[in-house]
Amino acid sequence: MKFLVFIFSLSSTLAVGQIDCVNCPPLSSVPLPTVTLPEVLPSLIDIKKVSYQRRSSVKHCKRPIDLVDTIVLHHSESSSQNSPQRINSYHLDRGWYMGGYTYLVNSPYRGESTPASVVTEGRPPELVGAHAGTDAYVPMRPKDKDAWNAGQILCGVEGGQFSPDSAELIRTKIVGGQRVEYMKANVTTIGVSVIGQYFGNAPRFQPTSNTLDMIAKLICRLQKENPNMVNLRVHNNYHPTDCPGNLGKASNLSYIVQKAQSYGCNFSSIPGHIKISTRINP
Ligand SMILES: [Zn+2]
Questions:
Q1: 192 CA → ligand 1 middle, Å
Q2: How far is the CA of 234 from the centre of ligand 1 (A)?
Q3: How far is the CA of 141 from the centre of ligand 1 (A)?
Q4: CA of 131 to the centre of ligand 1 (A)
Q5: Residue 163 Cα, ligand 1 centroid: separation in angstroms?
Q6: Per-residue pLDDT at 7 exceeds 60
Q7: I need a labelling partner for 264 at 20 to 30 A (CA). Which of 22, 91, 213, 249 fits?
Q8: What's the gap in Å between 214 CA and the centre of ligand 1?
Q9: Measured between alpha carbons, how far is 263 from 98 in angstroms, rounded to an integer?
């Protein structure tokens, strides 16, 4: 943690004689100020930006980023050597607008030295992602309803008109005689995917401390930028899938949360293979 302390000292010879100020005290009697600038937030980890191909005719949605309270952890279920652009291509092949994850983490498997460790931005954070599952919905909070009613959550295609799209994003369910509104979990979450395959017992599929630490640094950086992001979840909290494999183990999640805490962040986490009770099938 670095504190930048700038001490501004004014030399008494600094142009004093040239200031025409009749009532001002002579500069030499003014105490020299010591200015402590606010601590510069540590960036923790750099996030690389790259350009991606997109299917411009495919509908996608936008949301205010401050609605996002949850980071959902994934693995890409592919080679660890893949680039984020390659993952983007896989998702384009599914007919999607672009890659579904908001951030992608490259990190070597245990015992390997490549690929280089790097975090890359995927789908821009202000866009609703495609990662938690099309059947994953969560109850709308008052702030979600406010944003929805204010027309801040909109869907459309590139170059076209964006508008509220309840068929795309909203479901209702009667719970205990009450009508409860749910919103697609992708609206209030972002997806962080570790590129690789982390399911199985082989040693290489057990994440290294470096990989877990990269995740901790990334999520802590995101929380410092957006304090609403307080939940760490895994894909199979939302959807019946093996994703994110061993990354979702309780021991690994608690390692990530503790590391993030050491960087000044607080997260709650739920280990993998627990289906959240709020999930509904549309
Ligand atoms: Zn996943």
A1: 9
A2: 8
A3: 24
A4: 6
A5: 28
A6: no
A7: 249
A8: 18
A9: 32
26-58 tens-digit pLDDT: 555 555 556 554 444 558 999 999 999 999 999
- Separation CA 87–CA 192 (nearest Å): 13
pLDDT value, residue 9: 36
Model-level pTM?
Answer: 0.84
From the list 246, 241, 268, 132, the residue with the least C-alpha distance to 194 is: 246
CATH topology of domain 47-269: Lysozyme-like (3.40.80)
What are 196-210's pLDDT values in tens digits? 999 999 999 999 999
What region does 185 belong to: left with phi over 0, alpha with psi -120 to 50, or beta? alpha
CA of 247 to the centre of ligand 1 (A): 11
Å from CA of 75 to ligand 1 middle: 6
Other C-beta atoms closer than 10 Å to the C-beta of 80 total: 21
**What are the residues facing 171 on neighbouring strands?**
182
E strand segments, the chain: 5-6, 35-36, 47-48, 60-62, 70-75, 103-106, 118-121, 137-139, 154-156, 170-175, 178-184, 189-194, 231-234, 268-269
